[in-house]
Amino acid sequence: MTDPLALLARTRILAVVRAPSAAVALQAADALVAGGVTGLEITYSTPDAPAVIRELAARYGASIYLGAGTVTTAIEATDAAEAGARFLVSPGTRPELTAAMKATGLVVMTGALTPSEVMAAVDYGTDVVKIFPASLGGPGFLKALRGPFPHVPLMPTGGVTPSNIDEWFAAGAIAVGAGGDLVSAADLAAGRFDEVERKARLFSGLGSETGAAA
């Protein structure tokens, strides 16, 4: 069986999809995959998120790394797992929620920002600590966290762009979460899925514009 954290490291980018409808979420996911971004985090702020996950799992199978984000209840964790998610992401860390997420057997990523919060997340058993909002400190902050936590997998989310993505990995990120800079609410509202694909190509290194990740 493939090491799930090794798979996350190879996937590199998790696109955080917050869509106004299930249909828009599916179109955005198609555009992301076409642009080379195969890590998809379907948030529970998207209507019918489990249905979206179920459809994407059927459509793409193991060719994508699919999970649920903004998980805040045990029921959401269970529903996402049953729909075919392979990982679960919560914006923060609570012991009861982390336990429920872990009970699904999926990869668990919970949010933290301060060193104390990172320590708590590790104590509760999270697999990956989501540093959020990472834009508050930038790559330098992530690098500083690596000092006391050299063996903790850290995934910054927020403030990741094509021009700084390499800095995040150089600072020690196992992967990055990309939301508004990759899948913007404006693009989704306007149906600009070609723009979503273009941005995905920049993030994934398939694009040719200046500042694209290598």
Automatic annotation (TrEMBL):
Keyword entries, A-Z: Carbohydrate metabolism, Lyase
Pfam families, per database record: Aldolase (PF01081)
- Matching InterPro entries: Aldlse_KDPG_KHG, Aldolase_TIM
Q: Which residues form a coiled coil?
A: none
Question: Record keywords: Thylakoid included?
Answer: no
Biological or metabolic pathway of the protein: Carbohydrate acid metabolism
Q: Which family does it belong to?
A: Belongs to the KHG/KDPG aldolase family.
Q: How does it assemble?
A: Homotrimer.
What PANTHER family does UniProt report for this protein, alphabetically?
Answer: 2-DEHYDRO-3-DEOXY-6-PHOSPHOGALACTONATE ALDOLASE-RELATED, 2-KETO-3-DEOXY-6-PHOSPHOGLUCONATE ALDOLASE
Q: What protein name is recorded for this chain? A: Bifunctional 4-hydroxy-2-oxoglutarate aldolase/2-dehydro-3-deoxy-phosphogluconate aldolase
Record organism? Leifsonia kafniensis
